[in-house]
Amino acid sequence: MAFLDPGDPVELSSATRAGFRARYGADAALVARAPGRVNLIGEHTDYNAGLCLPVALPHATYAAVARRADDRVRVASLEADDTWEGTIAGAGPGGATGWAAYAAGVLWAMREAGHDVPGVDVLVHGTVPLGAGLSSSAALECSVAVAVAALTGRELDLETRRALVPLCMRAESEVAGAPTGGMDQTVALLAEPGTALLLDFGDDSNRAVPLGLEDAELTLLVTDTRVSHALHDGGYGDRRAECEAAAAALGVASLREAELSAVEALDDDLLRRRARHIVTENDRVAATVTALGEGDWNAVGRLLLASHVSMRDDFEISCDELDTVVTTAVEAGALGSRMTGGGFGGSAVSLVPLARLDAVMRAVDTAFVAAGFRPPAHLQVDPAARAELVP
Ligand code: ADP
Ligand code: MG
Asked: Is the whole model's pTM more than 0.85, yes or no?
């Protein structure tokens, strides 16, 4: 059974410092970490002014940085063979490419926003699986942003954290060329341990929602199907465009304002189904928060499953591997399960009684073998903390 350990933060921080020393022949000034995330419910709602409920993973990316005497940037990763070097001004759109677009792009966006960003050497390393729908991209951006903000003496207060969200988004959207709605960066910079973060993109507010998984003897199981999604590849962009078209057909500024009755009356079958997913998904997020408040875990499980069906049938972003995880997990005792993240591959999240955890993982592995899929990887998730400097 493939099980992805988050790793020990002290050891990972040391390994990141050692990697920095090996690459640049000098010591890093500091190390910051930023978590990946799993979205409990509320998918593709962020760019529709809607609701979502992500959780920070214990799996994180660590960024070691040191100031340079000149205005240049060098970025390297223990997870990538290629490196990038250039000026901060040259790290913008069309400048930094490949994985470096996320890392160096943040420095460009921070400089563009008027932050004092010196030339830096950066080395990153972490345990968030790449391209698994668990937001290694935002973990990378936010680890670099927090490290560089700290390097320039900025206090990591709420104001700084909030200010960094759109800059990390800008690196991803404009430099890496992957449109992103902001959920990933927000949870990476703001999440509190033991909680999910309810994000409302209608008014940009957010609040922590206590989960109490441990008391209920439940856990979150994330299963990476290892089917690689590619945000650049159209699927995500197509859905965004379809949502915009549906909002235009309904005469509303965003699908957050659409009424289900009006959606059901849309002539265009495709736009109707896309809009119906968004409108019902927002309702499911709100219902999940209510059910969590009441400790009604069975209701939470049913909502997760209903969300999956909506993404599979109306939004059409699932795949055979994700459907197999969901069906098998529930059959083996999960209270609920759904695909999570942008879709077209990536991961599923299941709400599992601790006593059934092993049985669920084994059942999924067996089902994957039977279907001829690549073996999946499992992550057990205790809702973790936001990006921080590593002492
Ligand atoms: P996800 O965010 O779901 O993992 P994305 O496609 O948004 O998937 O981002 C994955 C990309 O982010 C990788 O292909 C790589 O370019 C970059 N990336 C993330 N973490 C790292 C890392 N530690 N080292 C190098 N590149 C990384
Ligand atoms: Mg991403």
From this structure: yes
